[in-house]
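check this one:
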Amino acid sequence: MQHYPSEYGHYDVCKSLMKSDEGIVWEYMACQPESTDMTKYLKVRLDPPDSTCGETPEKFCAMGNPYMCNNECDASTPELAHPTDLMFDFEGRNPSTFWQSITWKDYPRPLQVNITLSWNKTIELTDNIAITFESGRPEKMILEKSLNYGRTWEPYQFYAADCLDAFRMEPKSVKDLTHLTVLEIICTEEYSTGYAAHAKTLSFEIKDRFAIFAGPRLHNMASLYSQLDTTKNLRDFFTVTDLRIRLLRPATGATFVDEQNLARYFYAISDIKIHGRCKCNLHANTCVFDNNKLSCECEHNTTGPDCGRCKKNYTGRPWSPGSYLTIPKGTANICIPSISSIGTPPKFDRIRPSVSSLEVSNRKQANVCDNELQRCQNGGICHRNMRCECPAAYTGILCEKLKCEKESGGCGSRNGQGAVSHSWGLTPTVLLGAIVLARV
């Protein structure tokens, strides 16, 4: 059997041509689109919708100096406007551009703003979420996620200057989590301290949670992939259709709110970084953005926005996501032709491949032979991809064995035939095909 080095298990690659002792062969991996900047594809919604400053021009003050109130927000003047698209600083302009909320002029009524980021597509997060605030990080905030396009929400992480006071939760850091608590929703005080000009970024640490399984420098990714393969809750944890930033209390920089200078309190976001990939259930290595919509270019006879079902006439077995691990440990779980499209095949329990010849799991799901990689040997004929019809003298999944091998005298005692070496059997190319196709 071909050896598969662990570094080939990287889940960004679907398949590639590899050199081996047997020549050029396909190396089959899990199919996933590349990780990219997902802020290019999202839509932003504010609640309340009139939370952006400038509809009515207003002055605002610097957080560090409440008497410095020479700044103005005016939506009708481009140089003074702070719309939501400036949350994503694609232009790299200097000075930095930013979205800004209205000021806290209605104090003591809470100044609260929900920022919803939607993709209309399921995505998987691959790096830390980073939110950069221009006027102090909020003293109270919740990052939420939805897995059903905003119909329901659940918390991702709580942020507060005082977790006990704000959310009745003990403060924690992601570094406090373990294998057993990796999915715990925590409250952190790390990013919500009083105003400091150099401390602007708030993070949701994806990589630190990866590191719980893959090690501090993410060197042991195979361990993480193994966990993702077997733990649906872990896969779902990094999966979203929408994110919601709930800004509940702005930075004040002090114990008490200065009611005489309310124009110094507001939210301002200069950049949001979200890296991820389209979720394609490991059945596509490309995701396209067309007509303002993301969609997977599905392979493996799958279809749907997330490649979440088998194509028509390919429902020969229930749909299943692919594996993060490469063969022989993983499987692409390709959808196979349905009975109606290929006629009535023999019963599946009669065509299970032997463990010794294929050495793969999911053995009930094998596509036994074809006319390309899994050819029937020694004159055998492939019948509906379900079994090899072998000549009288041969047996085995691919007609690779002489029947006399099974008999007590062996082949050496029959008609002068020499003994057949037990190292003979499936050629490397055929064996590779058997592994690939039988696994799926």
